[in-house]
């Protein structure tokens, strides 16, 4: 069973809006189309359905969960297996995501804790999060002092003035301060030891599928706040005990279906139109290239990935042209430009291997790596996932997953040849780290090659679209959408989904749902004040 959050200083953000608890009291239940059944879309659908709003969820893929989706696949020998887009860590600071999952699994029985997730670099140096105190700043201090890549003298070499933003994080203030700096330059400016960057900080940038040289320093600082100085939940996390579909999304689908939510999977939304006379939206969709019609609704939640959002908005000229009377023309055009400017992170590889021999018993379920390009982490799925454990038990083998992030194909290089070479290099790294796998026969291999995660580049924050749009009845949600709260990754997706629902509910006078986060600013008064003074005097 998942460990429940314990931080007494986590912040509850009440929802604005009316006091009505059910849309049935309005005389006519509003209808909403939620485009995208990832975490953001499912959170929005949940928030709306629990207040009696009629919800239709339209999802391009045949399964729920978006980038945390799971499905069944088949190995060459015909064996059915669970597959996904790769390992995800469910940290205990993910309050809003956990509140969503509790709708289908009240006790979070399907989340199990990992005792540790060590990090290792090319020199064989190893860091661990096991046994760290929960209380900031001692969690960060002890992690640094016991790390083989961080010597006590390195603490004295740190530039306290340059490092001040790490101790004075507030949202959105941190973005106003250092969003125009890349994470690598920021770490260099504070004299952070190069060897320690691989283990202590690059683990954060890799979570965004981007190298530190292209990632916003503000995003890095926010992550440091969420996991170290801003929270006493610690750095341990939980993982689903089975495939994502079975453990997470099918229970939630059942919960939502009992509340009247309809799901249409395998349906791609192409465009959205708004009728000037009625103010209602027409959501046009298709399946397999064939039109499946249009859903007419009172409001729309666009909870797609970045590319999907760009394409839908670009194909929807009726959303706010100058002569339509729908919203302020200048504001709408700025919004459309901001959506078009959203970027995607470099592609990444997920390589799942079914081996005919077991991995050594003392190998951790998850291992992060630094300086071992192109490999970023290794997961031994049969240590915690029911489907993988069952296969490993039947075949006397193991199920191992390798990740390679920021794996952009060089200009002029064939993509198929590049990915084949990338897979070979990742496998060679696995053999270096876990020599017992070198003699194993690969009985099955499934690969995901994707490039659909949002990019949090230098200076992007100011023009990143927010949940609210200039068009009444149209809201956005997703991990690439701006929300001025200390959240990131899956938790940002969940928080924006709940906020999207709240935005629509408030417009109908219906009660919203509170959000929870780690403290919105540095939690240690003296350290925060000293850091704020240092930042003012920079």
Could you explain the architecture of this structure?
The chain is an alpha+beta fold. The chain contains 16 helices and 22 strands.
Task: Give the topology.
Elements: E1 11-13, E2 31-35, H1 39-49, E3 54-59, E4 70-74, E5 80-84, E6 90-91, H2 95-101, E7 111-113, E8 119-121, E9 126-127, H3 138-146, H4 152-157, H5 160-167, H6 173-178, H7 183-189, H8 194-207, H9 217-229, E10 237-240, H10 244-257, E11 262-265, E12 268-274, E13 281-287, E14 290-297, E15 299-302, H11 306-314, H12 329-341, E16 348-355, E17 366-370, E18 377-380, H13 386-395, E19 398-404, H14 415-433, E20 442-450, E21 474-476, H15 489-507, E22 515-517, H16 525-536
Parallel strand pairs: 2-3, 2-15, 3-11, 8-17, 15-21
Antiparallel strand pairs: 1-22, 4-5, 6-10, 7-10, 8-9, 12-13, 13-14, 16-19, 16-20, 17-18, 18-19
* Terminal residue distance: 47 Å
Can you list the strand order of the major beta sheet?
9-8-17-18-19-16-20
Mean pLDDT reading: 90
Q: By helix and strand content, what is the structural category? A: alpha+beta
Question: What are the low-pLDDT stretches, counting only 5+ consecutive residues below 50?
Answer: none
User: What's the shape?
Assistant: globular
Q: How much β-strand is present in the residues?
A: 15-25%
Number of strands: 22
Instruction: Determine the fraction of residues in helical runs and give it as a percent range.
Output: 25-40%
In DSSP terms (H or I, runs of 4 or more residues), the helix count works out at: 16
Specify the biggest β-sheet. 7 strands, mixed
Rg value: 23 Å
Oligomer: single chain
